[in-house]
Amino acid sequence: MRIGKFMLVGLNGLLINEVLLFVFTDVFGIYFLVSSVIAVELALLTNFVINEKWTFRDREKKESVWKRLGKYNVICVGGMLLNVALLYAFTVLFSLYYLISNLLAIGIVFYWNYFINLKFTWVYEESVKTFRVGMNPLVSIIIPTYNEKENIEMLVPGIFQALEKSGVRGEVVIVDDNSPDGTGEIAEKLKKDYRVKVIRRPGKMGLSTAVLDGIRNAEGEIIGVMDADMSHPPAIIPDVLRPLLSDEADISVGSRYVSGGKISGWHARRKIISRGAGLLARPLTKVKDPMSGFFFFKKEAIEGRKLNPTGYKIGLEILVKCEAKVAEVPYTFVDRKHGKSKLNLAEEIRYLKHLFRLYWYKINR
Ligand SMILES: Nc1nc2c(ncn2[C@@H]2O[C@H](COP(=O)(O)OP(=O)(O)O)[C@@H](O)[C@H]2O)c(=O)[nH]1
Ligand SMILES: [Mg+2]
């Protein structure tokens, strides 16, 4: 963990500082404040080298080493001044016991040093590759289902109609979690007329794991994910596919929140939850509708990525973890006519856990 390494380096710096201060003052007889400046500078230099070679070893380094050293110095010395200011503020203004103030101040300054250096000294450069698709790619559309019997019967023909229209070869992979309403059996019947695979899992195991199981069983070069409930109109598929087929993007998201996108049939409460959830994910991605369950991507773009199947928003996981070019295509989300939404409080809490993990991932990247 990068932040843990940074902390160890910091502790090492403290130790070096203490020893050098003693040596310069007591062994060489230098005035202790002058010794202190020399000791601080040497400790900073040592820490810089260890951070450069260890903590941030994996970062691409475009600037000269001197520039990074300069920034590191300024940020850390700034941190020390901040430390004194906080110590004063907590102790004198907030009347905290000075040793407690000191711990608080050191804690805050540690985060300051870490994040400011992360942002300015060892900068992360997004290296966006473009993946190419072949001439006549197969598109695999994954549909996770739980109690969607009326919907799946309508959706699958709609999907093949849309694919045919755009001259694209496709397969549908239905991942059913032993739905009590018999969705699994209906899905099996669709195999007769359409290129459909059915993966039947023994019980309700969650939306994201269903999508990942579907991807594992998909043969296509391009993967799509859609709700079974007709909220994502199949007629829009050609529009969402277009940026991928023309190699303009590696991930294409059906978006309710770009100009031209809409939501039809949701109550104000659901709209607010959706907006709020999206807002919380804002710092993680520039995409306007990162919570979309309607997205297509080139399979290559996720290869080698460790995707964590927490909760509902596998799309967000892919957007954050795969540095790929993203297109957003507006569409009108239509609330389901049949069956019930499986989004509940437990899923909303799981979403917060998921967000926390993604923030942690970003911090340590
Ligand atoms: N296989 C599987 N599918 C699920 C599970 N939870 C939800 N789904 C499906 O995932 C899609 C999205 O769920 P939905 O209830 O429409 O959520 P909403 O659109 O956020 O209201 C639907 O096709 C559901 O049937 C699950 O645990 N397992
Ligand atoms: Mg839905």
Key descriptive features of the protein:
single chain, 365 residues, alpha/beta, Spore Coat Polysaccharide Biosynthesis Protein SpsA, Chain A, 2 domains, 7-stranded mixed β-sheet, two-stranded parallel ribbon, 12% strand, binds guanosine-5'-diphosphate, binds magnesium ion
Description of the structure:
51% of the residues lie in helices and 12% in strands. With 365 residues, the chain is of the alpha/beta class. Strands 3-2-1-4-7-5-8 form a 7-stranded mixed sheet. Helix 6 links the parallel strand 2 (169-176) and strand 3 (196-200). It is elongated. The relative contact order is 0.10. The protein binds guanosine-5'-diphosphate and magnesium ion (MG).
Topology at a glance:
Blueprint: H1 2-27, H2 32-55, H3 65-93, H4 98-120, E1 138-145, H5 149-165, E2 169-176, H6 183-190, E3 196-200, H7 207-216, E4 222-225, H8 237-245, E5 251-255, E6 262-264, H9 268-280, E7 295-298, H10 314-321, E8 326-330, E9 332-334, H11 345-364
Helix pairs in contact: 1-2, 2-3, 3-4, 5-6
The protein binds guanosine-5'-diphosphate (GDP) and magnesium ion.
Summarize the structure.
The protein has 11 helices and 9 strands.
Are there runs of 5+ residues with pLDDT below 50, and where? none
The SSE string, one letter per element, is HHHHEHEHEHEHEEHEHEEH
Largest sheet: 7 strands, mixed
| Overall number of domains | 2
